[in-house]
Structures are given as C-alpha cells and as structure tokens.
Amino acid sequence: MVITKEAAVPSSISSESDYNRVEELKAFDETKAGVKGLVDSGLANIPKMFMIPANELKQNSDSNPTRFHIPLIDLQGDRKKVVDEIKVASEKWGFFQVVNHWVPLSVLDEMIKGVIRFNEHDDEVRKQFYSRD
C-alpha cells in the first residue's frame, strides 16, 4: 500500500517481491508516532504491514464475509467459557467487547477523555511513551 508522505514510515521497498514486513514494522516503530502519526502524515491507504495476505485471509474467512460481528464477552459467564471466548476472540479478531465488567460508566468516560487528551499532545511528548510492550 501507499503512504502519501514518504517520511511517515521510511521504506526501501522497490517492488512487491522485495517487500519485507519486518523491515516495515521496524521503520514504523522507529518513528514512535504510532498509527496516529500515520494518520497525521496524510495516509492515503492502509500500509501493507497491517494487511493480512490474501492466501491467509481465505483460510481464515467465514463462508459469508459480509456477515460479521464483534465478539461479545460476558464476564458473568462460566470462568472457563469466558477465558476460552477471550482466547478465540483475541486470536481471530484481535479485539472484542466486554459486558458485565462492573466498571462504572464514569470511569469509562474519563478513560476515553484521557486517551483523547494524550493523543492531542505533540508527537515528541507521545514518543516518550511509545513501546511495543
């Protein structure tokens, strides 16, 4: 994929056969700007490092790709079942929604506001906290 501003993620990729995901991820990490840095740079398309190769996508796809849902994890369920659901959702989707977590709405609202405030800081401030951990 293409990034409109080359400086966003330095790339030495000259052709499809030369593509090296590890190198692209390393260059992305070295910017310490994260996905917001890509967006702020004028990103036109999703970078290839975030895309699943077509051959893997076909292996992992359901029979009807237009019907999908974000996995919903109910923490009030049986512990083993909840753990299994989290494992499957994490492996297949990489994210999920949690219900019955008992976290007050006011705490969730403040968390979202905090994330917004953090992302409004200059790149140099955010870079201090960037990590792959």
Automatic annotation (TrEMBL):
<keyword id="KW-0479">Metal-binding</keyword>
<keyword id="KW-0560">Oxidoreductase</keyword>
<dbReference type="Pfam" id="PF14226">
    <property type="entry name" value="DIOX_N"/>
</dbReference>
<feature type="domain" description="Non-haem dioxygenase N-terminal">
    <location>
        <begin position="70"/>
        <end position="130"/>
    </location>
</feature>
<protein>
    <recommendedName>
        <fullName>Non-haem dioxygenase N-terminal domain-containing protein</fullName>
    </recommendedName>
</protein>
<dbReference type="InterPro" id="IPR027443">
    <property type="entry name" value="IPNS-like_sf"/>
</dbReference>
<dbReference type="GO" id="GO:0016491">
    <property type="term" value="F:oxidoreductase activity"/>
</dbReference>
<keyword id="KW-0408">Iron</keyword>
<dbReference type="GO" id="GO:0046872">
    <property type="term" value="F:metal ion binding"/>
</dbReference>
<dbReference type="InterPro" id="IPR026992">
    <property type="entry name" value="DIOX_N"/>
</dbReference>
